[in-house]
Design brief:
Blueprint lengths: L1 E6 L2 E4 L4 E9 L6 E7 L6 E6 L6 E3 L7 E6 L4 E6 L8 E8 L7 E2 L3 E6 L1
Parallel strand pairs: 2-11
Antiparallel strand pairs: 1-3, 3-8, 4-5, 4-9, 5-6, 7-8, 9-10, 9-11
Length: 118
């Protein structure tokens, strides 16, 4: 089992920045790929970014590429999402997820709200 807890959400003006954190506990963190997803009101949950277990590679949704950056610290069991140049359409609940196998997002956090005002 893996427990995930996000933090760092909040209200920011368009063009601003926020940094999200996700603390993991339980199963060996360095064996898990980690990702961020988001869900806006009335929309389905969507992929934002992911990073491989040792941090060697990352992947981004086209809508956030060049603005968001995912990173991890395996010594601290943490994963981060740095969000720059935020837009109102980035408003959503952001979820941290863990995958023990390719694209098998088995573990989810409770989510943290990000609101970007225009």
């Amino acid at each position: 089992q893996v427990q995930l807890a996000e933090s760092g959400g909040g209200l920011v003006q368009a063009g601003g920045s926020l940094s999200l954190s996700c603390a993991a506990s339980g199963r060996s963190f360095s064996m898990l790929a980690m990702g961020w997803f988001r869900q806006a009101p009335g929309k389905e949950r969507e992929f934002v970014a992911s990073i491989t277990s040792l941090g060697g590679a990352s992947l981004y949704a086209p809508s956030v590429k060049g603005r968001f950056s995912i990173s991890r610290d395996n010594d601290k069991n943490m994963v981060y999402l740095q969000m720059n140049s935020l837009k109102p359409e980035d408003t959503a609940v952001y979820y941290c997820a863990a995958a023990p196998a390719v694209r098998r997002w088995d573990y989810w956090g409770q989510g943290t709200q990000v609101t970007v005002s225009s």
